[in-house]
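Blinded run. Sample ID left blank on purpose so nobody reads anything into the name before looking at the predicted structure. Input follows.
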Amino acid sequence: MGEIFQEVKNGDRYDKRSKSKRLDDVAMQTAAWKWVRSFNWIPRSIVAKLKESGDSIIEITPPTNKSNNRSGVFLPICSKMYSFRHHGDRHWLDNPANLQAMADCGFRIYRQYDYGYIFGIDGAGYDFYAAHWIPLYKARGLRWHA
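Blinded prediction complete.
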C-alpha cells in the first residue's frame, strides 16, 4: 500500500484518497469507538486477584503467527481488560474460528465462570483503535458504519 499522503507547501500532509473513502474511514472509526464503549471494563487487578484466589480463570488465546514476547506472563500488559456486554458478541466468541480471529487482532482471551470471556491487549503506547479495535470490528463482521 503506497503512501496515501502528499506534502503541501505549508508542510501539512494532504490525504490523496477520495473524499468518500476518507469519510468511510471516519465512519468506521466512529462505529468501532461506539462498539468498544459498549463493552464492560474490568481492571486487570481484579483478574489478577481472581487468578491468585484460585478461581478457575484460564487463558484460551489460540496461537497466532504474531510473536508473543511475554510468554509465561499470565495477564496482558494493558491495565484495562474487557468483556462483551451484548449476547451476540459473547455468542460470536463461542466459535473457535472467531477466537482465532480475535487472537489474530492482537487480543489475549480468557474464560471465567462469572465474567465469561475476558480479553485484553498486550501492549501500550500506540493507537489501539488502528491496531486492534478496528480490525476486531471488521473481523466481527459489523457494518454499523455503512
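Unblinding after everyone has recorded impressions. The chain has one domain: 5-139.
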